[in-house]
Amino acid sequence: MTLHSMQVPLLAMLLSTAVFCGSRAVAAPPRFPDDTALLNPISWQFNSSGAMNSSYDPAEQAIRFDVTYDEKVTDRWVYPRFFMRPPVTLSGATAVTFEVKVLPDEGFAGIRTANFILDGFNPYEPGPPGAWKTIRISLEGKDLDNCERFEIGMNPNAAKHAFLLRRIRFEGTPRKPLLPPGITTEAPSAVFFEQSAPVFTCTRTLPKLHYTVVDWLGAPLMEGDWPNEGDAPLTLPALPPGYYLLKTTNASDVVLKDYSFTVIVDPKRRRPVKDPFFAVDAALSWVASPGTFQCPWYDGDSYRLVMDLCQWAGITHLRERMSWSGVQSHPDNAPYFSHYLKNAQDCYKRNILVSGMFHDCPPWAGKSRGFPDNLAALYRFCKTAGETFGPCMEDWEFWNEQDIGIMPAWDYAAALKAAYLGFKAANPDMAVTIGAFCAGAASPYLEAVFDNAAAKYCDFLNYHTYSPLRHYNSLHDQLRKTMERIGRKDWQIWITECGTDMEGNATEDSVRKGLMAHSTEQERILAEFYPKSQIGHMMNGVYRNYYFIFGAYSERDGKKDWGIIRRDGSVKPSYAAMSTMTYYLAGARLAGELAVNDAVKAYLFDLPDGTQTLVYWAVSNLDTSNGGVQKITSDNATTFTLPMSDGVYNGSDLVGTPFQLSPRNGTAEIKATRYPSYLAGIKGLTASNPPRYPIGRPQPYVPTATEDLSVIVTADLNSDDFATTNRNSLAELFAEKGRIQLHIWNLADTPKTGRLLVKGGTLHGLPETLQLPPMGEVAVDVEFHPNNDTNPWRTNINIIGQFAGKESTPLIIPLRLTEQLLHNSEVKELDILKPDAWIRNTSADTYVAEYDEAEKALRFDVSWEDENKDRWFYPEHIIFYPFEDLEDVAFIEFEVKTAQDKVENDHGYACLMLCKIDEKDEYLPYTSPTGQWEKRRVELGPEGRFHIFKIRLGCNPIGMRMSFWLRNIRLIKQPKRHQAP
To answer: What's the mean pLDDT in 916-928?
Structure first.
């Protein structure tokens, strides 16, 4: 894609720079929210347990909210959030009035409760459906000084609900809120350009206010008295690029929080690059939505803030998120892309390209789990999106991490086909890729997706990894084997999410109640990780790498702190590390690794001007660890020498602070720490080890004259006959035959006549000839009778369409013939429900194993004291020969349930581990336990079962306390294969 002129972005940068150096602007007078914002759908943030859509109703002059709940959702609520930024405030408000109307619907079943949420729940009673009702709620006595948002909504009983709001008015007199003690700056996110003088303001006047500036590792740089004890701005001298901390002391009891700020190179000095490697998952329209983090700059325009920060740091590729259900609540309505489109257009104006993606669908387009099964609707939506966004998107991805068990692999492959065709119908030259895999580079799910000819419906490979750095090579080896297996060994690889858990759960309080923030040490670990991970993927031939994630984002009940931006709107040292790396390496080509010594890693880059840049660091536990939470115990300082011509060379540390190096007598002695540094202007060095793999290329598939990619076959498996297992990569048949409803889709504008061919069995009830309407489907109820002549318990349902003399791509469903397996197998129950049959193997601080008479089961109770500890529970059982010989065992079956100290009772992982003599342990995942007794059947691998001497069976709970029950453990022996005639 041709880049636009740089004139507009540079002008924007110059205008933004003016903010840094000028005097404080006169603050606008405080005011309450008005209809300009209150009636704007973009002002209301999604906040519901269902699929919510906001719109303006011109006839009613009201804001309208529609919500639809999945059938599995029992706790139905909708409370749209309205965020405020200065000068908009609620400080001084004494009451709020508003009008509300619940819209009548045939399925209306009443309202359980309704609330205006502001400093607690304030209940109100809506009127009968179809009638406006005026509500007044007193705000006397509420803490409104620092209020950022309020919510208005209700808890409906029905699966579909809609209501209107208008004339939201706040009584009282708006006043300027009393700011808490602290330090502020007019520089967005406290990011300054080099050569500008950083200016700071204190919100309080404090006696003997004294400041100290330290660098990012805590070394003091300058100090002095704050002018007028905080009543006047503090202006520092211009500082070189780097990451700094402003610390203060004073003679009162008030303690000001340390204030971080960043100085980066002037963006005007950056080299423009057409196809950069460096990118970031910004999830701009979600994670940067108003109110997600504090944004006292740009009148609260947090979207603009993120775009500016990315642009200043040399990041010109962002990964986005979009919600289909959020832009098209009804099939008769055209999609309204609202802020998603505006953000993409604003990025495009700045020469920032976007990777578009969505991973949901409105209820009318999918039966369950928010996954589309109406392939014609999916095609039309993707075509409309592709046409509407046009060149603002550089590429489109379909879905996100589908291999974590959201939908069966064959269903995903069918939907991918429809989405791909839709995007390509909008623009045949648009790059379209598969949803990113994340659960294994050679997992059964990934294999099943590509067995369904998914490679014909994507242009390059897309993957997510949060692996330790030392696992990158093995990960990419597996990806390359997969690409070769599917005939795409020269594909490009994009890593569209790259992050780490090695810093552990956040340990500090953030400015948002209930959300934790990283400590200084944790932020340093993440800054160290950034350049190391980028180069690790470069060495493995990755085309583009998207760091996860830019905006403030939390997971795991607020304990996992992601993001380069903090909740207070400032940036972490990772931002300085990113800016530094892109400045030195944008447009450079990785020549390879330079062998120095075992204590140092060094990588050589060739630049367009003929010079070289060296990136180097001392090996740390971040490089060598196999996982788990890491700590910084030392900077690992060491030195190494390189042959270099005498002269003066410029370089910088991880966060951009410059230094100079002067070799003598043709040799440079270089100091390295665990934090990567850069040395520029080198010439004549040769890499010892080139990149392990070349960078691939996008490969759009060109169908042959006998192929028809527009015919897609899907299958609804009857739940009484079939179940999906092995993380939705395999179907099980529990009877001799199984009922299926086939859907044959024709995503072309012409009708087609043909038939279906089946392998792996026969389809009873299948018509000889099928007539497919244009852009439509035909549904057929059939009965599948498996053919298991080659394997008594495994086959594939393999269906191909033949229409108008061409063949469709196949529908392939890997099938386990469970009924036949159990009928022809020897089943042996293990008598190991005794506490002493299991050896303690867990990270838990407390562990109790006992027989539960009421449940007729073995019960384990475990708990952890430190919430930052890696929580795992895998008790061991030693195999006793010959009674528990696993040589001929095809499956281990058991019943399991759990209870935790959290309502979700969720688990990060659950597996059966096979421990083999002199071999690596084998991890076999199973569907995580729930609060009810459920049967799990784990298939053992075909080879090496006689080497197994021990098994481990358990899970990784998310909670701090767990009870784990286990019973009815059985070995299912492999049935004998049919004899060939």
So the answer is: 81
